[in-house]
Specification:
Layout: H1 3-28, E1 35-43, E2 47-56, E3 67-69, E4 72-75, E5 81-85, E6 89-102, E7 106-123, E8 127-142, E9 146-152, E10 158-159, E11 161-163, E12 168-170, E13 181-193, H2 195-200, E14 207-222, E15 226-232, E16 238-246, H3 250-269
Antiparallel strand pairs: 1-2, 2-6, 3-4, 4-16, 5-15, 6-14, 7-13, 7-15, 7-16, 8-9, 8-10, 8-12, 8-14, 11-13
């Protein structure tokens, strides 16, 4: 069995193990209500983030309140991790949601997201850990005043790409240089361009408002005599950057057309 086949087999095992864990979690969580934590509005240079909130089960780690610099929203997660030891499974997930509205004279051309963390696996046996982030984006307004509802990307959402190892890590696969021990930082990012979505819907102009939802999951699973740990880091846990474009003022467009017309008239007189 080669390395790629082994990784696929072990990650399928992780999914099956996690699925069984979800059954137990669902039973235990039947009486536990997910809570919504509001963080409020954050005002950037060319866009504003509106209604930033997190939906999380009690006891799970949190992204926490963000800070903003320019147009970048920065979260520093606190305790957002998953740990499994000696035959256990842990799944920790959170849903982060917010709206983004362009300031007057600006449009939103795209969305860039990145996050980072680390993973540690130890022992001899079954030890797995994984990180996944799925992004759902809806364009809710174009050209500053026209309401729309356009889902960007596939119906199942846009998956963030992770390195190394695609965001899933396994004993017996990743611990090649030091069997029984694997430790690494990981990084994930995604860029979503809104241009193709506008073109596909026959819309000309610019995006002025969007709604974003991120499903974030950390999973750890282990057998006897192994341990698995994965976390989103305290520093640069999630950074969201909006790509913007400057929209010409109507008066500037009129002035440009007048200048062009006068230039053409002068050429004809010559």
């Amino acid at each position: 069995m080669n390395r790629t086949t082994t990784r696929s087999y072990l990650f399928v095992s992780l999914r099956r193990f996690a699925a069984l864990a979800w059954v137990a979690v669902a039973v235990q969580a039947a009486a536990v209500q997910a809570v919504t934590i509001p963080y409020g509005n954050f005002f950037g240079t060319t866009v504003d983030y509106l209604g930033v909130e997190e939906i999380v089960d009690p006891g799970n780690g949190l992204f926490g309140a963000p800070t903003i610099a320019g147009d970048a929203l920065d979260f520093n997660p606190q305790g957002f991790s998953a740990s499994a030891n000696g035959g256990s499974t842990r799944i920790n997930d959170s849903n982060l949601r917010f709206g983004v509205m362009a300031k007057t004279g600006n449009g939103i051309s795209g969305l860039y997201l990145s996050e980072a963390g680390d993973v540690t696996l130890t022992g001899q046996g079954f030890g797995l850990a994984a990180v996944t982030t799925t992004i759902f984006v809806e364009i809710t307004e174009v050209n500053g005043n026209t309401p729309v509802s356009i889902n960007v990307g596939p119906p199942t959402g846009t998956s963030m790409a992770f390195t190394p190892s695609g965001g899933d890590y396994a004993l017996g696969v990743d611990d090649v240089s030091l069997p029984g021990f694997y430790q690494s930082g990981w990084f994930g990012d995604a860029f979503i361009d809104f241009g193709p979505a506008l073109a596909a819907n026959g819309i000309t102009g610019f995006v002025s408002k969007i709604f974003v939802s991120l499903d974030n999951t950390l999973t750890a699973a282990s057998s006897a005599n192994t341990s698995s740990f994965i976390q989103k880091k305290d520093a640069d846990g999630l950074i969201i950057t909006i790509e913007t474009e400057e929209i010409p003022e109507p008066s500037s467009i009129v002035s440009a057309l007048i200048a062009l017309a006068l230039g053409g008239f002068a050429i004809r007189r010559k």
